Amino acid sequence: IFRRADKNDDGKLSLEEFQLFFADGVLNEKELEDLFHTIDSDNTNHVDTKELCDYFVEHMGDYEDVLASLETLNHSVLKAMGYTKKVYEGGSHVDQFVTRFLLKETATQIQSLLSSVESAVEAIEEQTCQIRQNHGKPSHGATETWYGSPTPPYAANHKLMATEPGKSLPSVTEDSKEEGLEAQISRLAELIGRLENKALWFDLQQRLSDDEGTNMHLQLVRQELAVCPEQLSEFLDSLRQYLRGTAGAGTCFHIAAVRLADGFTFVIYEFWETEEEWKRHLQSPVCKAFRHVKVDTLSQPEALSRISVPAVWCTVGRD
Q1: CB-count exposure of residue 40 (10 Å: 0-12, 13-18, 19+)
Q2: How confident is the model over 188-208, as pLDDT tens digits?
Q3: N or C, which terminus of the chain has less Cβ within 10 Å?
Q4: DSSP secondary structure string, 286-299?
Q5: Which of 302, 309, 303, 292 is nearest to 253 (CA)?
Q6: What is the predicted pLDDT for the residue at 149?
């Protein structure tokens, strides 16, 4: 965790690195700064590994066993991958069949656990958003209001999943299964309704009319990223932070990430007000942090393309 947060690899966390990594859309900058100074017990204006560990160890509870088990699991999976490569290349058809079965079953079991955890994360985010709405306190982070919507377009379902036709949902506990199924049905119904109305996922009509027609084009930026399998977890953590951080930019109308069927290729789409705003975004801390992680996790250079698209495309189909 400390290594992922320490973007410049100097062995200590500055306030900027701390705020960038731990920003969750709930604590504002001042609250994160206060927390930083609480953890910085020796008042050096930097947090080292020991200070970070000392703070979280006091609050881990049952998560101490969970994280320890994940470390063991990570080691076991990497060891199994080496064994799989050796056995599969020189094995018989039956040996290869057994290897494929065990590998797929491992993936299913891990995905089952992941689904339960992600359901809990979504429930907490939705509950947090509801509480803030009830208190009438605007957000300064990822759950900031977008043109009358309580959350950014991706917040209700920010999970990055490969869409494989015919693939069933992994098995989970009965309670979480029912909760997850209800959420999936609600999202499916919403999507069907929008498709029937020929509506898009985001609405820029009000924003564009406010500009009185001066902004007739948007800058569409597309990034295609191929991730090293062993670095997938680190990349996903960074990508989720990048989505939240970029969505909070006032000149970014929409951002979405798609995970392709191979499980290791991702495509990010961003709609920016102008090309200049996008170039300015490239110098932002959130973009620099994501670029730092991409250097370590991608199997090949990213493929980036951009094009100006008519802004009216974002509001067609309303009649």
Answers
A1: buried
A2: 566 555 554 444 444 444 444
A3: C
A4: HHHHHHHHHHHHBS
A5: 309
A6: 33
> How far is the CA of 214 from the CAs of 142, 217, 307, 315, in angstroms?
28, 9, 18, 16
Which amino acid makes up residue 265? T
Angstrom distance (rounded) from CA 235 to CA 215 = 34
**Residue 99 to residue 90: CA distance in whole angstroms:** 12
**Residue 267: is its pLDDT beyond 60?**
yes
| Amino acid (one-letter) located at 42 | D
Q: What letter represents residue 75's amino acid?
A: H
Q: Give the pair of three-digit tokens for residue 20.
A: 């960038």
Three-class DSSP category at 29: helix
Contact by Cβ (8 Å): 90, 40: no
Would you state the structure tokens that stand for residue 209, as one six-digit string?
């009319």
* Interhelix angle 63-90/93-135, nearest 10 degrees: 150
Sequence-ordered list of residues with C-beta below 8 angstroms from that of 265, at least 6 positions apart, any chain: 224, 225, 226, 227, 259
For 99, the enclosing helix (H) or strand (E) is helix 93-135
pLDDT higher than 90, residue 235: yes
Q: How far, in Å, CA of 81 to CA of 229, rounded? A: 11
Residues 6 or more apart whose Cβ sits within 8 Å of residue 106: 77, 80
**CA-closest candidate to residue 160, choices 298, 260, 293, 228:** 260
